[in-house]
Amino acid sequence: MQDNQFDLTGKVAVVTGASRGLGQYLGRALARAGADLVITSRKLGDLTPFKEEIEALGRRALPLELDLRDEASIRAMAPKAIKHYGKIDVLVNNAGCNVRKPAVDITWEDWNLVLDTNLRGSFFVAQAFAPHMIANGYGRVINIGSVTSVFGYAGIGPYCASRGGIKQLTMSLADEWGVHGITVNCLAPGWFKTKQNAVLYENPEWVEYLKDRIPLKRPGQPNDLNGAIVFLASDASAYITGQTLLVDGGISTGAIRATTAKK
User: Fold this and answer.
1) Is 25 a catalytic residue?
2) 12-247 maps to which CATH number?
3) What is the pLDDT of residues 239-254, one digit of tens each?
4) Spatial distance between the Cα atoms of 227 and 33, rounded to a whole number of angstroms
5) Can you point out the beta strands (E) in the chain?
6) Ranges of each domain in the chain
7) Eight-state DSSP code of residue 117
8) What is the C-alpha to C-alpha distance for residues 42 and 95, in angstroms, rounded to an integer?
9) Percent of the chain clearing pLDDT 70 (strictly above)
10) Rounded to two decimals, what is the model's pTM?
11) How far is CA 11 from CA 7, 14, 61, 131, 230, in A?
């Protein structure tokens, strides 16, 4: 057993949706822990700045095009990643999208966009890498959920459905692939500011409302995810599978005061 179980030197990790936001937070943490990366986006050119950033850290980064709503795109991406490095040790299913509307205004197309991307896409990306990991007898699959994997929020019904599905999918794949030495876990961030939700943070009243509900009294910062993603990608989590790890500042406790006094 290696002295530092959190060391990812020699490991190769795929991070989907790495052109912005959480995907870049997670990719940086894995690279700093020693991993080389495969980074994906729908538009290959969007990955150039992040590729250069990872290489400046002394790690390798292979940018690949990936559209989670296109089966052929998924089927083409996985072999390219495997061929380039010779192996894939870690998959971070991060790419996703959201539609913010009242439930009565959600269209058929809205529903399909979110569920096809967040849930169906994540499944088929995992499926594409599974035979390789099974053959190697090793793998770390990390599905990115959210606090909505366990909580419901108004105005984002399809998103909540997709993230709840990710939690259940994680448990199913963990049960099926554990015999092959593959762990499957869900990393569920709470409220982190990203390009996807940045408009919400422009409202000071909403930010104060959010902070009041979080026991740690602040939204998440990029570095708050570093330890969790490295842990789940590393040998330190070898006996953990099928779990959902919430990194949410405690908002999933319910965060509703039972008294009128603020602490």
Assistant:
1) no
2) 3.40.50.720
3) 999 999 999 999 998 8
4) 10
5) 12-15, 36-41, 61-65, 90-93, 139-144, 182-189, 244-247
6) 12-247
7) I
8) 10
9) 96
10) 0.93
11) 9, 10, 12, 18, 11
